[in-house]
Amino acid sequence: MDVAEIQSRIEEYSLFISSTLRPQLEAAAKAREEVERDIKEYEVLQAKLANMTSTAKPTREKIISANTCSSDDDAGEGKKDQTETVVDLGHEVIYCKAVIDDPSKIYVHTGMGFHVEMTMDEAAAFIGKRIRLLRQSLELKTQKATTIAVHIEETILVLQQLGNEVSPSQE
User: Fold this and answer.
1) I want to staple 115 with a disulfide (CB 3.0 to 4.6 A). Which of 3, 93, 107, 168 is the partner?
2) Does residue 140 sit in helix, strand or coil?
3) What is the 8-class DSSP label of residue 78?
4) What is the Rg, in whole angstroms, of the alpha carbon atoms belonging to the chain?
5) 98, 100, 112, 119: which is closest to 127 by C-alpha?
6) Where are the alpha helices (DSSP H) in the chain?
7) In the Cβ-directed half-sphere of 79, how many Cα atoms lie within 13 Å?
8) What's the start-to-end Cα distance of the chain, in Å?
9) DSSP letter, residue 82
10) Whole-angstrom Cα distance, residue 103 to residue 106?
11) What is the per-residue pLDDT across 75-130, written as a single tens digit (0 to 9) for each?
12) Model's pTM, two decimal places?
């Protein structure tokens, strides 16, 4: 190979790294971060759900016993178990207190912009399955990012070898 052809190959590989591989790596890293964020959000929801179910059950028993004892008082008959919580209004920046009138059912984001009303048990089962699915997706996205990073390293090695061929021949 002559020097001009080697210089041409070096430019070609450099362009391939900058125009193809680096953007692919950035996109793969961004996709992986989005899945990690989704996993974190579902784990937070799972913890809140577990907290609500553990604290809500004794409260319901107290309300049921209070309602059965005061059968003459109709004011408490229509009242449901209320739960207070803190709601994220904007990307973990703004929070506000909220009162859930009936915590026996909640809305869960199932993906693609859909929210489904579920009981606590249904939500817990769904969240567990969703976290497992997201972890599998995270593993695939991590493998893809790793593969792209390896391609970049290999291409840089080829560039170094081509550069070494040019350097001795210029002397």
Assistant:
1) 107
2) helix
3) S
4) 29
5) 119
6) 3-16, 22-69, 120-170
7) 15
8) 16
9) P
10) 7
11) 444 455 777 778 778 777 888 888 878 878 888 888 888 999 999 899 999 999 99
12) 0.71
